[in-house]
């Protein structure tokens, strides 16, 4: 499990506050790859911690970065609408 980078934090915040339709229209291959391989993994780990109560590492990292539970849920929903498998 890698640490959250500033870029990861910003990407998650953008997902949490943006419309998936707008993001999808402006997404290029590099952004899609980053979403699939890096941010998607982070959101998946966060989702599993929240749904299975299996740990708190990602939850604490999100809180420290100023990402609320609502932001986390919104980012997961947006990622799903962009076709990223979270569950």
State the share of residues found in helices, binned by percent: over 70%
Uncertain runs are none
The number of distinct helices, counting runs of at least 4 residues, comes to 5
Please tell me what the overall shape is.
globular
**Any idea what the radius of gyration is?**
12 Å
Order of helices and strands: HHHHH
Briefly note the structural class of the backbone: mainly alpha
Distance between the termini: 17 Å
What number is the mean pLDDT? 91
Sheet of most strands: none
Estimate what percentage of residues fall within beta strands: under 5%
Please tell me the total number of domains. Answer: 1
Number of strands: 0
Keywords:
5 helices; mainly alpha; 87 residues; globular; 74% helix
Explain what the structure shows.
With 87 residues, the protein is mostly helical. The protein has one domain (6-81). Helix content is 74%, strand content 0%. The protein contains five helices and no strands. It has helices spanning 6-17, 20-26, 29-52, 57-64, 69-81.
Short summary:
This protein has 87 residues and is mostly helical.
List the helices and strands and how they pair.
Elements: H1 6-17, H2 20-26, H3 29-52, H4 57-64, H5 69-81
Helix pairs in contact: 1-5, 3-5
